[in-house]
Amino acid sequence: MNFHAFQQRRDFLRSVAGSLGAVALSNLLSAAAPELKGPHFAAKAKNVIFLFQEGGPSHIDLYDPKPALRKWHGQPLPASMTKDLNLVFVKPDAKVLGSERVFRAGGKCGTEFSDFIPHIASNADDICLIRSMHTDAFNHHPGQALLFTGSTQFGRPTAGSWISYGLGSESQDMPAFVVLSSGKGTSGGSMNWSSGFLPAVHAGTVFRNSGEPILYLPNPPGISEQTQRSRLDLIRKLNEEHQHDSGDASIASRIHSYELAFRMQTAAPKLLEFSQESAKTLEDYGVNKEPTHPYAVNCLLARRMVERGVRFVMLAHASWDDHQELNRKLKKNCDITDRPIGALIRDLKQRGLLDSTLVVWAGEFGRTPMGQLERVDEAPGRDHHPNCFSIWAAGGGVKGGQVIGRTDELGLQITDSPVHVHDLQATILHCLGMDHTRLTYRHMGRDFRLTDVDGNLVRQMLI
Amino acid sequence: MRGLPVLLLVASIAYGATDFNRDIRPILQARCMGCHGERTQMKGLRLDNREAALRVLSPGNSSASLLVSLVSGKEPKRSMPPGGPALSAAEIAKLREWIDSGAEWPQAGALTAPKVEEHWSFRPVQRPTPPASRNRIWPRNEIDQFIVARLDSVGWDPSPEAPRTTLIRRLALDITGLPPSPQEVAEFLGDNRPDAYERLVDRLLESPHFGERWARPWLDLARYADSDGYEKDYVRPHAWRWRHWVIEAINQDMPFDQFTIEQVAGDLLPNATIDQRIATGFHRNTLTNREGGVNVEQFRVEQVMDRASTTGTAWLGLTFGCAQCHDHKYDPISQKDFYQLFAFFNGAGELDIDAPLDGEMGPYLASLANYRKEREALLAQFKVGQHQPSWEARMKEARAFPGKWTDWDHALDALTKYLDNAMAILDTDPAKRSRKQTDAMTDHFLKNYHRVISKELWKELRFTEARKKLGELRQGFPALSEAPVIVEEAVRPSHILIRGEWKQPGAAVEPAVPGFLHAPPANADRSRLTLARWLVSPRNPLTARVAVNRIWQELFGRGLVRTSENFGRQGESPTHPELLDWLSARFMDSGWKRKALIKTIVTSAVYRQSSAARPEIEATDPGNTLLFRQSRLRLSAELIRDSALQVSELLYPAIGGKSVRPPLPKGVIELAYGTDAGWPESTGRDRYRRGLYIHFQRTVPFPQLMNFDAPDATVAACKRERSNTPLQALNLLNDPTFVEAAQAVAARVLRERSKGSAHERVDYLFQVSLGRRPNRTELETSAQYVRTQISAFEKDQASAVQLFPTALVGVSRAESAAWTALASALLNLDEFLTRE
Asked: B134-193, pLDDT tens digit by residue?
């Protein structure tokens, strides 16, 4: 939290605390804001937009061109290449499935992207593409747990929660960590935005892009805004009266929560009012079109939330788990997401927000070069593949226009510069000014961190 | 800073200003031992014992200690540690504090060869004599003597007793989880007998709601849920049977040793009853992963690990799970110890048994023949018998030749994942299968045959229709309820798993208890039952202390050992070690009776203190370590719901039974993948049951529970957070459940005080909602609020009708709506959410 925001909060709390003495006020500040820690060092990024592509998008059909796949198409791989693979459905001797995608160079840097994602490709010069990601888990739930919590064990906080805990909120009327979702539900469900053992205030708040944006946000029927205000005034008055009797400073922090809730009631629906957005912006994102509509709304909301100080916005899109009918399903998801994502990066950049906003695009793992045939009368898909996959980041102190890492001619194994999920997490925290070894929380008698006991900063990603 | 010496005094009395084991050891261990320990001594320096470490330590003077200069960057060229991040300011401060206070180092050679038996919680429970006190008036029982001795030593008085209205609400919430009615409060206030308080305690302890209130912390430890977890997150329709068992056991005051034995090994007791087998459902609360790529054996092993470490946490308060991959870093739990504990559970398998509820068996038997006949007829009508045998045969072939037929591979995978114990059933001759096995296999076949046949044939067979009809048939006949249990199903050799990897077995191990604790009787076998009895042996130094500490935690907001999840060397030391031992010994000596222990605690003077803050000493002991007052505790998620339902008289107070699904806002259940079952909303009174009966779907937990810090039911939860968030405010202000409660409270007040003035009504509303009468300011403010609201709603009749849809005879809508608004405000007060 920067000093200005801190000061605002302090002033606000002082007004809430009223006649409380200085001691009580300091208690109140610590009670109301256990997250007040601030970064470890100066940083470029203040916010993160995490574009989570649930299910494991195929790296070799989107980001990592492998012409050799066609050469191998229809043949099984030699046993020596497959003996240590963790495969879910396909057997080691499954036949290679050639990619039908055409890859084209994007931007000045010339990084190659699949023909299914031209809008993302058009931002190539801002994108740092990592083709050498790897993870330890080859099933969805554990894979997502590892990606977001740094562990396949249960009960750990997710990245957004750690960041909320580490940096606090800059927003006066929205939570620090917001979740937007599209498509069907994710395998991890609420685990993907859980605060784990951190206090619930750091959990992701699910924000719906139609109807009631936040659960229980609208007043109940018959309670006008004026009635709500007077109800809150009464609650506050009676709470203050009771605080006077009991001397418990934590009552003031409950008063503070009610005030923040009231401001959220106004602010959250306003986020959904796109009337101030230009026709061109709406057109660029694809807000009023199908099939981009829901995802475009989420992307535009993400920008608007970042503008209002939301620290971590997660967009979960499900699902890319294309075990069958790869080409049809992949196209469908790309048609939904590519245009809004391309527009989001451009929009952030035009508004000068990209430098302070780290955008990450990632799924929990990649997919096998071998094809998977679940039914004989269906088109093939690909199986889960944790050994290598592609993700990218843009903005927020990340150096665009570059590719990190290489994989073998089939996209089966990494041949250069492996980047583990923990390394990505360490780097995201670094971009926000935090040392991943120092962002810790004591639980069950030991210090926990997002990167568990691993994680190396990927310096090459940084400007 | 006059307070400072007192602060240090309090801190050192409480648990030592800095505690070597808690504060210093981890720093040295983690940051120094790699190069300056027993094995390596860079520059000849070792920091694993005090004598050697004195080279860089000047006890009493941290500024003169080289260690401090080295780690705080004052020696730029040899800043320590050389690799990795620098020590944090807090760590350096701790080191300084420790050195300044004399660099006490309790155990010789502590860092490499710790003397296990010296750790307080591994030593036998003592039976200390309560200390005599100068204060002869305040103490009510022995507990108070321990407390007051500490307070005396810093010259503090305990707090006065809380007002009686506070006491009854505190007791009611702590013992039954439901706030008292105005009548109950009035009766207590009017009871002038000297033992009125004890009588109240006895009455509350006999309430059947006691079992509900005290089951909940145990459910947290057991990570109880109504679904599998992981991606598929299947519903567990019978999970509630174990919860029901817990509630009943606690209501009957089943001794904690028996409570333990039945849950860990009830199935192995001689002539085990169905209830004793249901108790083993404790170990069926592990999550189940039915995701496609999961190896069945791998997952079984993970479940056994989870059972072992959950047992370690729930009963021993130790983090056994840490020794899954390597020897425990801080506690004397070797990896071998972990897998020896694992071995006790390795032979256990999962089974759902018939466990008929009262009255089920007769009708079931009477109609069984008819049901079988009609089921067979349906199966014949859809020609199931023509397809299933060949399908089963191909399944076996697919198993024998993996990779040969893709579609059959997938079908086999589905069979192993979705049907429990599928391979065992497949290998049983159809004629020899139990009825349950036969039906389960056929049901799976009907649902999954499409995986291996053409879409045309699937259409032609109309199996979807067959399933629907079979389902309807089943619904129409009486069934036997089932219960999830564990059974000894196989003798499986156990091994140390290298780095916790199931594919890398190391040395073989036998079931055995950790070597650093007492041994079981020499003639005992190596069964789970032996483990269970060992847990509750009077020689076990941990079980009673851990259990007593958790009960204390429920009644004071934190345990005598603050880290109730960790009694190991990384945990905190008890603030009142003698008291903890006195209570633990008494707990064991008096037959492990929960109710007696709770009664002893709640009748103490320390429990009965006021929770009002004491500005003059709060800053000196901000954690209230010395218990100079009671604590204000925000209620748990469930109790907030229960309280609102109770004061509004909407609560359906049935005890136990199946889980319910109260209304859930649209769009919530859709957030997870594995929730095809949706959320079939409960109807009628079931919508108003207590929070602990709400169906817990692990990937989409009920929002109100999560908003108020309920655990996510994945790992043993030893204590809950008490957070304070704006989402909680929105939840209570706007959730239809709480609005309905406010309407009902308003209706209640208007009904029961129909002739009353506004002041009389406000007075009663406070009694209903908060169990006390308002003070002058509260009375005036509230009455004024109602007046304003009435005139506002008179001008806006439409809103009045919306806020109070069902008109009351003789009361205007505006008035009803205004009282609803006031009631809602009261149900949002910090005081309403707090046990004071």
From this structure: 777 899 999 999 999 999 989 999 999 999 999 999 999 999 999 999 999 999 999 999
DSSP tag of A108: T
- pLDDT value of residue A217: 92
Tell me what the mean pLDDT of segment B225-246 comes to: 94
Q: Which of B84, B407, B632 sits opposite A374 (nearest CB)?
A: B407
Residue among B128, B20, B116, B15 at smallest CA distance from B581: B128
CB-count exposure of residue B108 (10 Å: 0-12, 13-18, 19+): exposed
Pick from A221, A222, A357, A385: nearest CA to A299: A357
What is the distance in angstroms between the Cα of B802 and the nearest Cα belonging to chain A?
A: 5
Q: CB distance B725–A257 less than 8 Å?
A: yes
Contact call for B671 and A206, based on CB within 8 A: yes
Best B231, B670, B813 member to test A by mutation, with max A CBs in 10 Å, is B231
Give the distance from residue B85's alpha carbon to the nearest chain A alpha carbon, in angstroms: 7
The one-letter amino acid code at B599 reads K
Structure confidence at residue A85 (pLDDT): 85
Indicate whether this complex's ipTM tops 0.95.
Answer: no
Euclidean distance between CA atoms B655 and B636, whole angstroms: 19
Which of A3-7, A247-251, B138-142, B717-721 shows the lowest mean pLDDT across its residues? Answer: A3-7
Looking at the complex, report in whole angstroms how far the Cα of residue B110 sits from the nearest Cα belonging to chain A: 18
Q: What is the pLDDT of residues A299-328, one digit of tens each?
A: 999 999 999 999 999 999 999 999 989 999
- Give Cα B126 to chain centroid, integer Å: 28
The answer to whether residues B56 and B65 touch, using CB atoms and an 8 Å cutoff, is yes
Nearest-Cα distance to chain A for B135, in Å, is: 26
Q: Are strands B482-488 and B348-354 parallel, antiparallel or unpaired?
A: antiparallel
In this complex, the residue of A86, A238, A444 whose CB is nearest that of residue B781 is A238
Q: Is A208 in Cβ contact with B293 (below 8 Å)?
A: no
Contacts of A435 in chain B (CB under 8 A): 85
Question: Up-side HSE of residue B213: CA atoms within 13 Å toward CB?
Answer: 27
SS3 content of chain B, % helix, strand, coil (to 5): 55, 5, 40
Do residues A299 and A340 lie in contact, with contact meaning Cβ atoms separated by under 8 Å? yes
| More reliable by pLDDT, B511 or B36 | B511
DSSP bridge partners of A381: A372
- Tens of pLDDT, residue by residue over B48-86, are 888 888 889 989 888 889 899 888 877 766 778 765 567
Nearest CB to B672 within list A185, A220, A438: A185
Selection from B227, B288, B222 nearest residue B259 by Cα: B222
Structure tokens at B741: 């409660």
- pLDDT computed for residue B277 by the predictor: 98
Q: How far is A307 from chain B (nearest CA, A)?
A: 21
Q: pLDDT tens digit string along B602-612?
A: 999 999 999 99
Q: What is the mean pLDDT of residues B494-502?
A: 91
**Amino acid type, B470:** L
CA–CA gap between residue A242 and residue A258 (Å, rounded): 16
Q: In terms of CA atoms, which chain A residue is nearest residue B821?
A: A231
CA distances from B593 to B242, B580, B597, B677 (A): 20, 16, 6, 41
How much is the pTM?
Answer: 0.82
B821 neighbourhood in chain A, CB within 8 Å: 223, 227, 230-231
What tokens were used for A105? 């160079």
Residue A31, pLDDT score: 34
Tokens in use for B168? 């009854």
The beta-strand segments (E) located in A171-251 are 177-183, 205-206
Tokens of residue A408, six digits: 């073998």
Interchain pair B670, A184: CB under 8 A:
yes
Q: In this structure, which amino acid lies at residue B201?
A: V
Span B392-410, mean pLDDT?
A: 89
